Amino acid sequence: MKIMEEMGALLVAAFGLASLSGVMHLVKNSAANGTLERNSALGLKTKVTLSSDTAWASGHKAAVPWLAVCTWTGYFMGAMTAAGAVIAMAAGSVHSALWIFPITGFIAVVALSIRATAVANKHGREAVNSESQKE
How many CB atoms lie under 10 A from the CB of residue 29? Predict the structure, then answer.
């Protein structure tokens, strides 16, 4: 029974990574095509990016490459986790080393999200500064 519990836990972790990556994918696509309006639910929210629509749009547009890497890293690590769980089930044993995929996947997604947010904040600040200089 232990193998089923561990396999189930791995599959839950894979689903979590895929879900998180799906949300990041939505933010990336919306930012890339300019349809992500300033809101309190989705996006890279900092004091700067929330300060104006210009800062929001500029920051998110600049963060798109980081959001793309974040998204695909999460999808890949989620797929590796799910594949590891299926292989473990077929083999009849789960090796603890399989946890490296979801653990590093979540760490990488969080780190890349932080980097994307820093980029958005920087470019949002630049947009606010250039906007205020025009006035």
Answer: 15
